Amino acid sequence: MVLRKSPICGFVFVLLLFLSSFLGTLFIISPLLPLMIFKPKWWRFVIDEVMGSWITYAVSLMEVLAGIKIRISGDMFGQGESNLIIMNHHTRLDWMFLWMCLIRRSEVKQEKIILKSVLKLIPGAGWAMQTACYIFIERKWEYDNRTFTKLLDYFREAKVTKPQILLFPEGTDFTAKNKARSDEFACQNGLPLYEFVLHPRTTGFVFLASKMREGGMLSAVYDICIGYPQTRPQNEMDILYGKFPEDIHFHIKRHPVITLPIGDKGLQEWCELRWRDKEAMLKRFYAERHFTETAAASSGRDRDVRLLLRFCFVLWTSLVVVWLAFLLYSSVARWYALTHCVLFYAVYWWNGGMEHLEISIFNWWKSVCQ
């Protein structure tokens, strides 16, 4: 346990996460790029499966290597759904920790995270997220509006994946600086001051919920509350220094699409009300160190993933070792890797990223086949 909380564990965790994403992109995803050109739907299906496998490895690093435990309460996810997930944003790493929940109650390969556009430049992980069709935003609504529309239209028309879109309505993680800004906004608009959450920015939620519902892509909104009863790493540097949470709690509330209000104003007020509920829920959580809410008419039980996590831990770690040896002893492998590194950055500067290239190719095929 001491080793798990040490900088050594943090360094190994970050190193394996980086190497697996970087080398996995080069040696698994890159050879599949011709599928994007000649069989776009096959490409989307295969890449989602690859991403699901890698996310499982990331979860194995969190649980097997770092020893993080989780506790999930509340509703089960419906099978075969397209849905929207909204969650409070305690730390910059909440999106990664959520994988530990989804792997037990949903399908991680379906998840499409809304992220800052600068993250697509990260070698390996950023490239993989591009090919996975994650949604990158600039925080400029005139740009983000077009991005949301483009990606949602693609998911609807391709009919290969049923997206499970993760949105943090707060827009940023919970820090003293961000809380001060949220409090200032609340005072200016006559809103209550929150202690455990930031006031949500509802524009993105309203647009996504409306657009997905109009396109028949919204089965439910899943309102997830995340809490850290003990250690709470705020950012990547905390993880690097071995500051892992001992356990993480999730509470899930499913809101079927038929229960959502109609109209932008109604959706805005609905989202704001959910955050008032979160504030009250988290106040109790940090007093009692667990969620006291119970699930309403949920059925089923969490998937047992212990063997799967250990298998992926061994498989992906072995692949990383093999790929590193390949690069070390083969000049051909090094030239191959360099070429594809240049390719990913070239596509980014030329077309905005692999996800935009994928959509352009899909639309071209659609026009040819009509």
From TrEMBL:
Residue stretches making up the Phospholipid/glycerol acyltransferase domain: 83-198
SMART domains per record: PlsC
Transmembrane residue ranges: 12-38, 50-68, 307-329, 335-351
Keywords: Acyltransferase, Membrane, Transferase, Transmembrane, Transmembrane helix
The UniProt record lists the keyword Acyltransferase: yes
Keyword DNA-binding on entry: no
PANTHER family, alphabetized: 1-ACYLGLYCEROL-3-PHOSPHATE ACYLTRANSFERASE-RELATED, LYSOCARDIOLIPIN ACYLTRANSFERASE 1
Family to which this protein belongs: Belongs to the 1-acyl-sn-glycerol-3-phosphate acyltransferase family.
Protein name (record): Lysocardiolipin acyltransferase 1-like
Organism encoding this protein: Priapulus caudatus (Priapulid worm)
